[in-house]
Amino acid sequence: MSRPQPTRVQHDSFCWIEGWRQVNCPPEALPADLVFMLISRAGLDEMTVAAMSKDEAVARLQKYWIDGT
């Protein structure tokens, strides 16, 4: 099954998740490894991760490592 193509609005929010390198990517995009761990290990969905700042994402991953949740 193929993935649906993102809309322009989604593109602006998710360019860093998909690895797109566009001029309009947010300057504070989360590192790909951090996004991967939040989704695959901590069990967060893409929308939740996309709404996080870098500090929030790091804190959430630290919570997962400490508490396992």
Query: Mind telling me the C-alpha Rg?
Result: 13 Å
Fraction of helical residues:
55-70%
Q: What is the general shape?
A: globular
Name the quaternary structure: single chain
Largest sheet features? none
Mean pLDDT equals: 79
Euclidean distance between termini CA atoms: 30 Å
Taken together, the total number of domains comes to 1
> β content, as a range?
under 5%
N-to-C SSE string, H for helix and E for strand: HHHH
Structural class determined from secondary elements: mainly alpha
Number of helices: 4
Number of strands: 0
Ranges where pLDDT stays below 50 over 5 or more residues in a row are none
Brief account:
By secondary structure, this protein is mainly alpha-helical. The protein is 57% helix and 0% strand.
List keywords for this structure.
single chain, 69 residues, mainly alpha, 4 helices, globular
Describe this structure in words.
This protein has helices at 8-18, 32-40, 46-50, 54-67. It is globular and about 35 Å long. It is mainly α. The mean pLDDT is 79. The chain has one domain (8-67). The N and C termini lie far apart (30 Å). The relative contact order is 0.13.
Question: What is this structure's SSE topology?
Answer:
Layout (H helix, E strand, L loop, with lengths): L7 H11 L13 H9 L5 H5 L3 H14 L2
Helix pairs in contact: 2-4
